[in-house]
Design brief:
Layout: H1 3-13, H2 32-36, H3 48-59, E1 70-73, H4 80-86, E2 91-95, E3 105-107, E4 119-123, E5 130-131, E6 134-147, E7 150-154, E8 159-162, H5 179-182, H6 186-189, E9 210-212, H7 213-222, H8 228-259, E10 269-277, E11 283-289, H9 299-316, H10 324-343
Antiparallel strand pairs: 1-4, 2-3, 2-4, 5-6, 6-7, 6-8, 6-10, 8-9, 10-11
Amino acid sequence: MTQQEEQKLERMVGTPPRPLRRPLEIGKRLSTCQSLSRHILHWEEGPTHEVFDEIQEEGGQGCVQLLPKDFPTSVGDESWKKAYRDSKGVWIWKPSASARGMGIKLVTKLDQVSKTKSGVIQSYLASPLLIQGFKFDIRLYVVATSFNPLKLYLYDNGLVRLSTRKYHKVQKHSSDRSRYMHLTNYSVNKKSSHFEPRTDDDFLACTGSKWSLHALWKHLQDDRGYSKQEVLSLQSRIRDIVTKTYISAEDHINTQMAMSKLHRTNCFEIWGVDVLVDSNLTPWLIEVNTAPDMSASSPLDKAIKGSVFTDTYTLVGIPIANSASKSQQVLSKLRSNAAAAKGG
C-alpha cells in the first residue's frame, strides 16, 4: 500500500461521528385527531379536504389542518374546478413526478392548469410570514430507520430558502405570477439576478438567499420581537406536523414492504420535508421529497447536509472508526492482507 493510499484510508476511517439528534416521540398514545390523520396522504381515499372534514368531526375543533386544501388533477378529471370556482384566492399547480420546481405555477385562471398532464392543485397560502419582504420556506431533514415500529429522527437544523422578488398578494385573474416571488426552490431562484449566494457556513448569519434554521429562530426573536415561548411553540408544531405526516403513510409503506418481503431493518431513507410558516406563525406542510437534493452548492449546504449524512450513517449502524488505535488496526490488517496476496 502506497503512502498516498494510507493517507486516503486514514481520512476515511479516522473521522468521528457527530452526536445523534433527538428522535421524534412516536411511541406516545395518539389522540383521535392523530389517529385519523394517518389517512391524509392516501389520495385513493379521496381529496384531502374530505379527510380533514372527517378529522374535524371526529376529533373536534382542536384538530389543526396539516396542509392546504388540495386535489389530484388527472386527465379528464375536473372535480377540482368547483372548489377553485368557490374559492376567493388563487391556487398553485404542481405536476406529478417532478422536482426542483419544474412545472410549478401559480393558477389565477382555470385554463392555466394542464389538460394533458396529471398533478396536484393546492390552495395557495396568500399570507406567508416574510423575511425582509421575501417569502421563504423551511427544508427539514428526516431519517426513518424503521416503519414497524415507526422510528423517525428529525435533524435539529435545516435550510431556510428565500424567494428573490419581494412578495405581495395576488388576486384571481391577475397576470403577476412571477416564479421568483411565489416559489422558494433554490433551483428556481438561483437563476434570478437578485439571488445572493452564501459564501460562509455560519449557522447564525442572517444573510443571503439561504439561511440555516438556527438563523431563522434567532431572527424571529432578536429582529422580529417574537418571544422565546412563541418560537418554541412553532418548533413544537412543526415536529407535530412531521410526526403526523409519517403516521399517515405508515400503513401503506408497511404493506408495500411486506409485499416486497423486505425486513424492517433492511432499509432506511432520508426525506426532505418542506414547511411554510404563515403570518400567524402557523406551520403548513407543503410537500415531502423522497430524494432531496444533498449536493453542496455552498459552504452552508455542505455543513448542514454533511452532518445529516454523518448522523444517518451512525443511526443505521454503519461502523465508523473514530480513534487512532482503530485506524491503525484497520491499516495493519490491510497491510497484512496485501503482503499475503503478494506472497501467494
